[in-house]
């Protein structure tokens, strides 16, 4: 599974709080993906994507 943060990210930091192993904030104040989703974290990443207030996280 892979995650991608779209340009619509508003930099609220929710994803980095919910799943810091996969998401981090950039110097530009937007979220970014650190790595491919590790095995066993798929549900956590899906829940994080669902929680994004602007639907900026795409998982595939």
Structural summary, described in words:
With about 60 residues, the chain is of the alpha+beta class. The protein has helices spanning about 15-20, 40-50; strands at about 5, 25, 30-35, 55-60. The strands form two sheets. Strands 1-4 form a two-stranded antiparallel ribbon. A hairpin with a 5-residue loop joins strand 2 (about 25) and strand 3 (about 30-35). The longest helix is centred in the last third of the chain and has 10 residues, at about 40-50. The termini are close together. The model has no long low-confidence stretch (mean pLDDT about 95).
Strand content: 15-25%
Mean pLDDT over the residues: 97
Shape estimate = globular
Query: Structural class, judged by helices and strands?
Result: alpha+beta
Features:
60 residues; two-stranded antiparallel sheet; globular; 25% helix; alpha+beta
Task: Give me a quick take on this structure.
This protein has about 60 residues and is of the alpha+beta class. It has helices spanning about 15-20, 40-50, and strands spanning about 5, 25, 30-35, 55-60.
Layout of helices and strands:
Elements: E1 3-5, H1 14-18, E2 23-25, E3 31-33, H2 42-51, E4 57-59
